[in-house]
Specification:
2 domains, 9 helices, alpha/beta, 6-stranded mixed sheet, Coagulation Factor XIII, Chain A, domain 1, Rossmann fold, about 425 residues, globular
């Protein structure tokens, strides 16, 4: 395949079809032979409609997918379960072949698709590091140059000569990620590496991936961790039912993803198990929307434009009072930017009762950027909470934009009024 200095990945009308209920392979295990022999007399005696082979059905995990990734791009791929994200990575990693279309890779690829992918269970950690390096086409000297850093990052120094089948899942993951990141691939394909491991390791992974990106290498990152995608990636691809729904900025892709989730499920059910684990559930939000001053639902605001957050709540048990705690948080650092608290009902709210109200933010002096919402529903003074919703349950994020060209005026969270005086 010819190399291209302007393209790292090119995908053209890619499709992957699977057959559901297809005829089984001709070979069978010894256990299946014994089981079928035991069942044969019963089948002849009673017969069964289930004995008839099911008709084949086609399922397209991907269909008509096209995009181009330039060298140095950091692309986050998001979508619901079954959207086709992992299938796409397996095709790019040459683990599976596409049914139609093509995928071109220009550069040396390092893949981390599952814990321990590419590791041989009967080899030691040391041997697997050299094996993976050889698969990537690296010379022994190159692997040796990075070996100590790989082992140190993975924190498996005392187990590096242990057969990896005896590793814990965390050890597997740490070593697999270190190999994929440190053996200097030009393109790094990562699938849900942050789904396993503690918070410290997750932070290390993000830091290393950010370092890889700043070195000008391409990162293709599939994750359900939307905060990680937002902080790491400069571009987002949203897959839905095997098709590209959005290919644009990270903010655009995340906004479309959250909107799709909210459209398919009301706020009253989103993340409910987590919400009930954190609160009493005696009263809950049933609707939350963000609008501009004209009442139009939107998530994009010009700097200084007024906002209104509309809420509907329902009591599922008698509560002595209702109050709401509202906060805007930085989409990057997750710091609290501003917090306000209001009493909604200084009386008993009975089970089955519903209330609708809004919080107005007139001309907030927010700097351009992305801000997440945190809203708590509690008693009148919010000493205890009945419900809490935030970015974890796909609340809308607020995107503030400005055409201000002076970069210094875009720094920070607020544009504080000021004046120069001479004394």
């Amino acid at each position: 395949m010819p190399t291209s200095s302007s393209t790292a990945i090119r995908v053209v009308e890619l499709g992957k079809r699977y057959r559901i209920g297809a005829a089984r392979a001709q070979y069978r295990t010894f256990r299946e032979v014994i089981t079928n022999a035991a069942k044969a007399p019963l089948r002849r005696l009673f017969g069964s409609a289930n004995d008839r082979p099911a008709p084949d059905r086609e399922f397209w995990a991907l269909r008509g997918v096209s995009f181009t990734v330039a060298p140095g791009d950091v692309v986050g791929v998001i979508g619901r379960n079954g959207a086709g994200k992992s299938t796409l990575l397996k095709i790019l990693s040459r683990i599976t072949e596409p049914t139609e279309g093509r995928a071109e890779i220009h550069g040396r690829v390092g893949s981390l698709l599952e814990v321990g992918t590419g590791f041989h269970p009967e080899l030691t950690g040391r041997e697997n590091v050299y094996l993976n390096g050889a698969i990537l086409g690296m010379r022994r000297a190159e692997i040796q140059r990075n070996f100590d850093e790989i082992v140190a990052f993975a924190e498996v120094e005392q187990f590096i000569d242990t057969v990896v089948k005896h590793y814990s899942s965390g050890m597997y993951l740490r070593l697999a990620f270190a190999v994929a990141a440190y053996l200097e691939p030009e393109i790094l394909l990562v699938d849900e590496v942050l789904a396993v491991g503690d918070a410290v390791f997750q932070k290390k992974c993000l830091g290393k991936m950010d370092e890889v990106a700043r070195q000008g290498r391409t990162v293709f990152f599939v994750s359900h961790n939307l905060e990680a995608v937002r902080s790491l990636c400069t571009r987002g691809i949203l897959l839905d039912a095997g098709k590209v729904k959005v290919d644009g900025t990270t903010s655009d892709a995340l906004s479309a993803y959250r909107a799709a989730i909210r459209a398919s499920e009301s706020i009253s059910q989103l993340g409910l198990q987590d919400r009930l684990a954190r609160t009493t559930g005696a009263a809950r939000f049933t609707s939350i929307t963000v609008t501009d001053e004209d009442g139009e639902v939107t998530e994009r605001f010009e700097a200084g434009q007024s906002m209104r957050v509309r809420m509907c709540v329902e009591a599922f048990a008698d509560v002595p009072s209702l109050g709401v705690l509202f906060a805007l948080k930085s989409g990057t650092t997750r710091d609290y930017i501003t917090v306000c608290k209001h009493t909604v009902a200084d009386r008993v709210v009975t089970a089955g009762e519903s209330l609708a109200f809004a919080i107005d933010l007139p001309n907030p002096p927010l700097q351009p950027g992305d801000y997440s919402l945190y809203i708590g529903l509690g008693d009148a003074v919010c000493a205890r909470f009945y419900d809490v919703v935030d970015e974890n349950v796909n609340l809308p994020w607020v995107h503030v934009w400005s055409d201000e060209s002076d970069g210094h005026k875009r720094l920070g969270y607020f544009q504080t009024p000021s004046r120069l005086v001479f004394e």
